[in-house]
Amino acid sequence: MRWYRLLWAAVVAVLAAGPALADVVSINPSRDNTIYEPESEKSNGAGTRLFSGRTNAGLMRRALIAFDVAGPISAGSTIDAVTLRLNLSRTRAGPETVSLHRATLDWGEGTSLASGQEGAPDSATGDDATWEYRFYDENNPSSSPAWNSLGGTYGASASAATIVGDQYQYGFYDWSSSGMVDDVQAWLDGTEPNYGWFVIGNESGTQTTKRFDSREGGNPPELVVHFTPALVVPAPALSPGGLAGLITMLLSSAALALRPRRASPSKRALRQRRSGTPARGARCAADRSGA
């Protein structure tokens, strides 16, 4: 039936779209910074380095890093795997565990720029994150939005951790885990605000600091995300006239398919018709009439 064929063609068109194919994207940070204990009015927003761990004086350093995942990844996608890559450019410590913790309050990156190796911070500028403040107000520092506690506000459980090597093992290090997948999925879906991660080194000893390149550095951080886009089957573009024509055609085909058909003659009747032999009923009628 013609209308069945039309419906089947529509089904085939949908099925031909098939499953969505997995994709991968590499993203550089939208912002990053380092906060330095105990500095409430100093930062390194525009610096080329990020620090985490404790100095030889026992002072803590914590890096902050965030990525705009909603830009290159389409809404509704499923996050399959996430890897953060940071380039270790300097350390005096041996191998140390460095962890990622999801930031739970927003923070900023100003234009402060530490000098030299950037181990000591510069004076904070507007919107810089510091050890005490999330967005530094250089005109009225005491009114700056503060962290819930000194040193930042973040999730207690690490989203990921990796061991970062010593001074003979400079280069890229990777963080990858199901916790990071959960973080990025939540940021993409909007179920959690995207404030990025704290990069926290070993803070239980001294001289554990690791220095990484920032987004302004020579080898900036990179977030590699594998994802499966949501399957979207586009509806055919039809003008009002084209849609009316399609409906008319479908209705006509259905009406023809449902119209009663005249019974076809049997094969025996066709053979008798071609040979000129009367059908059985016709012979009986002739006999009764005496023909």
Structure description:
The structure is a single chain. The chain has helices spanning about 1-15, 180-190, 240-260, 265-275, 280-290, and strands at about 25, 30-35, 40-45, 50-55, 60-65, 80-90, 95-100, 120-125, 160-165, 170-175, 195-200, 210-215, 220-230. The strands form two sheets. Strands 1, 2, 4, 5, 6, 7, 9, 10, 11, 12 and 13 form an eleven-stranded antiparallel beta sheet that branches. The protein has about 290 residues and is an alpha+beta fold. It has five helices and 13 strands. It folds into two domains: about 1-15 and about 245-290, no CATH class; about 20-230, Sandwich (Jelly Rolls). Helix 1 crosses helix 3 (about 240-260). The protein is about 20% helix and about 25% strand.
Shape: elongated
Helix share of residues?
10-25%
Low-pLDDT segments, ≥5 res? 11-16, 282-286
pLDDT averaged over residues: 86
CATH class of the largest domain: Mainly Beta
What string, H for helix and E for strand, traces the elements in order?
Answer: HEEEEEEEEEEHEEEHHH
How many extended strands?
A: 13
CATH architecture descriptor name of the largest domain: Sandwich
Structural class, judged by helices and strands? alpha+beta
Could you say how many structural domains there are in total? Answer: 2
The fraction of residues in strands falls at 25-35%
